[in-house]
Amino acid sequence: MPRAGELPHYPFGFRGDELADALRGFLADAPVTRVVTNGGWPAWLVTGYAAAREALKDPLLSRSRAADPAMPREEKDPPPLTVVGTMHLLRGAGLREEAVKGMGPRQPHVSLERVREIADTLLARMVARGEPADLVADFALPWAAEVTCELLGLPVRDAPELAGWFGLLATGRAMEEHLFDDWTKAMHHFEERMAVIGTDGLLGRLVALNRSSDRPLGHDDLVEIAVFLFLSGLGNPAAFLALCALVLARDHELAARLRREPEALPRALEELYRWSVMLGDSITRVAAAETVVGGVTVRAGELVLISTDAANRDPAVFDHPERLDIDRPPVPHLRFGRGRHFCPAAALNRAQTEEAVRALLDAVPGLRLAVAPDEIRWREDHAVLLPEAVPVRW
Ligand code: HEM
């Protein structure tokens, strides 16, 4: 078996509209293979669809072990907050169920009308300022920041500053360079906000319930939960909306069809969830005991990286997987995970993104890219893939 230094280094690229060549190669030749992480640890990389589903559902592949500093991991010095820590804190105080409900499709904190209104206002401002505009800075990031502020009950006036915190999702070199200062600033900001949080939004509700919990969380724990939930609401939703916007700005036929056939939009979004490449890191697990993934034996303590991006483009499951085809027969993609950690906000994100995309199609009928498609640059070294900018005209 090769040593860590001789293994291919994961991740392989940062484009959100194209699967890296190396991942395509592994899908064909080795759907479970050995790689080395940013932190220098060897790991199993799972790319095949069947193997990825199996791994996500395998109870022996543990997410909490993947957050244990004694275990191999993706980054040398990972950020201070993890999904494991957040869910563990919420469960400990008996608040997990309430939190999951508050991210679900029937959450009472931000209506779909309001989500649409936020999108309409941003787009009207953008159009009024004149072309060219940038659908990342002028639309996707501020939209996700505002919607999440309202969902969580944070002051919406903070949204422009908070949108800039996408940088907290840095990995690899970018993380080593400035992450510590950025995290200190973010924690400080949320310490102040959580000290005066009202009763609105999911955080307000959790704080109120926490007061009557027989195992209440302390202020620092609530701050951690707030920062983590804010980043969950900002990162993936902004990146996915930016990708949708990029696709619509460069594929005029698709945009025209979705204007003509608005009922096709949910199906188109489902295909975009499949086709998009969103992970600058991976979904990680550590084996609690020996297990088998895609026919390969994984020993206890070994790190497993699951690339749902690659799995969603497995030619064994999707014909011409690189083709964005909104008429393809439905096959469940793995964009929101699978099994016991399935994203609690999946249905909410579907409904909210649909509102935002409809707003874009309606507000900017002549939408087109202001640069050649191959001039779009992607942020390097981030856990969620986002274009630097999507310059457009109309
Ligand atoms: C495009 C949008 C989104 C995508 C692609 C996405 C993706 C995912 C995935 C793949 C997982 C599973 C991770 C694992 O198995 O380890 C997950 C879990 C989670 N997501 Fe999302 N997510 C999105 C939006 C959101 C939003 C808007 C929120 C909250 C405001 C959120 C909160 C969470 C939480 C709390 C978990 C952990 C659930 C648990 O462990 O029980 N997500 N998400």
TrEMBL record:
PROSITE patterns: CYTOCHROME_P450. The chain crosses the membrane at residues 225-249. InterPro entries: Cyt_P450, Cyt_P450_B, Cyt_P450_CS, Cyt_P450_sf. Residues 63-82 are annotated as: Disordered. Gene3D superfamilies: Cytochrome P450. Keywords: Heme, Iron, Membrane, Metal-binding, Monooxygenase, Oxidoreductase, Transmembrane, Transmembrane helix. It holds the Pfam family p450. The keyword Oxidoreductase applies. Belongs to the cytochrome P450 family. This is Cytochrome P450. It comes from Streptomyces hebeiensis.
